[in-house]
Design goal:
By secondary structure, the chain is mainly alpha-helical. The chain has 6 helices and 4 strands. The chain has one domain. Strands 1-3 form a two-stranded parallel ribbon. It comes from mine drainage metagenome.
């Protein structure tokens, strides 16, 4: 929980599959519990500059993927990042070796497959670079304002919205 409180942005990766969606629902529930405990303990409300949901291991050939992606779009609305990380054999091979697509030098498939996987990861990760640059620019323009500025996202408010039928995945 220390990393959650130290972060300026919260990024949650969610593969659009049934079990992974169930796991992310548990994560959001636990996060809400941690935030409520912090509020009760010392009145601290954690604010992030942004909360982002990144879809990973997206397999468009899986029928349930389309349904779960629709659920995520409805439940996460503006938190859902537009670019995703697709499921690729290169990424699966890298993960089995506790590596990334950037660490793979040799692959049973073609080098073009590695290059394509890296391009897809780069595209998804470029979203974060833009988000962080925008955050820094906002901080600079506020001339010394604290990082939790007026555009911050309050998790406690979002969680309260969820419990009353709001837009959170748990409520979907």
């Amino acid at each position: 929980s220390t990393a959650v409180f130290a972060a300026d942005h919260l990024v949650v990766t969610v593969p659009p599959s049934n079990l992974d969606l169930a796991s992310s629902v548990i994560f959001w529930s636990l996060l809400r519990d941690v935030m409520e405990q912090a509020l009760k303990a010392d009145g601290h409300v954690k604010r992030w500059e942004g909360v982002h949901v990144l879809q990973t291991r997206v397999d468009d050939t899986d029928k349930s993927t389309h349904f779960i992606r629709k659920l995520l779009a409805m439940g996460c609305e503006d938190w859902l990042l537009p670019d995703t990380i697709p499921a690729t054999r290169v990424a699966t091979t890298a993960a089995s070796e506790f590596a990334t697509v950037y660490d793979i030098e040799r692959y049973e498939g073609s080098y073009r497959s590695i290059k394509r996987a890296r391009e897809l990861f780069d595209k998804a990760y470029s979203q974060f670079a833009q988000i962080l640059n925008d955050t820094w620019d906002a901080w600079e323009s506020e001339a010394g304002a604290a990082p939790a500025a007026q555009n911050s996202v309050s998790v406690m408010a979002e969680m309260a919205d969820d419990e009353s039928g709001g837009r959170h995945v748990v409520a979907a």
